[in-house]
Amino acid sequence: MGERISNVVKHLDVDVIFNEVISHLKANNSIEYTGSNPYFLYFRGVEFYIFIRNLTKAYPSRSPDVCRIQLHKSNLFHNIKFSEKPLIVLGYCQQYKTFACWSSENIKPRLNGKSNVSLYSRFSEQIPVRDGEIRDYMLSNGEAIKIVNSSNIELLLLDILNIKGKASSTSQLQFQYSTNEFNEDELLTLIADVLNDSSELKAMQICISYFEQHNKDYNLLKIKEIIAKFKTISY
């Protein structure tokens, strides 16, 4: 019988959580920030907002594994809703020191539409991720969620904000690759037909399948780098 996952919810003040985020980012980056939940940040040439909530049990009795954050109707969200700047919403799980993150495109249109907006995750998905990786999973309603360790928050921002370059952390070597790790021509042949699609989702799915079939280590940032390289190479 598997180990039972404890769903005890521990809370931290959101400013404490935000300061932890900033401490990880400032270790290797010059960053500017202001405001108070939602916070406004300038990171690697990109301006965006971050809003943080502690994850809480959504249905303690009937579904103890389901957790959520709620975004209450507020004037603070009015300008953000109609801004072109991204909104990154983070649900923090103190027990595992991980963040859940939901799509900005899906959240912003819902802001202030009703008294509160509920965003769901699961405690069983909040368990720590391997260092240097992001866990992607999907709820039954089709909503995509990203899970990342708090120590890898820089990696999450690079992925969500589509910032070119590598995470400048101690785990940076995990994002480097050489053509000796896989057959470059073989992989390019597999994704050539979808390489120029406006969405990279299909190309990413093919790459993931390729690496898993060949028992190669991979992460989403590595795959994005490979696809970006293929797009710039003329064969």
Put simply, the count of helices is: 7
* Total strands: 10
- The CATH topology name of the largest domain reads Trna Endonuclease, Chain: A, domain 1
Q: Uncertain regions: pLDDT < 50 for 5+ in a row?
A: 1-8, 168-180
State the separation between the terminal residues, measured CA to CA: 53 Å
Shape: globular
> Which range does the strand content fall in?
25-35%
The strand line-up of the biggest sheet is 1-2-3-6-7-10-9
**CATH class designation of the largest domain:** Alpha Beta
Outline the secondary-structure elements.
Layout: H1 14-26, E1 31-35, E2 39-43, E3 46-54, E4 56-59, E5 63-72, H2 78-81, E6 87-93, E7 98-102, H3 104-107, E8 116-122, E9 135-138, E10 144-149, H4 153-160, H5 184-191, H6 201-213, H7 220-232
Describe the structure.
By secondary structure, the chain is an alpha+beta fold. The chain folds into 2 domains: 147 residues, 3-Layer(aba) Sandwich (Trna Endonuclease, Chain: A, domain 1), CATH 3.40.1350; 56 residues. The protein contains 7 helices and 10 strands. The strands form 2 sheets. A 7-stranded mixed beta sheet has the order 1-2-3-6-7-10-9. A hairpin with a 4-residue loop joins strand 6 and strand 7. Helix 6 packs across helix 7. The radius of gyration is 19 Å and the shape is globular. The N and C termini lie far apart (53 Å). The N terminus is likely disordered.
Short summary of the structure?
With 235 residues, the chain is of the alpha+beta class.
Which keywords apply here?
single chain, 235 residues, alpha+beta, Trna Endonuclease, Chain: A, domain 1, 7-stranded mixed beta sheet, 27% helix, globular
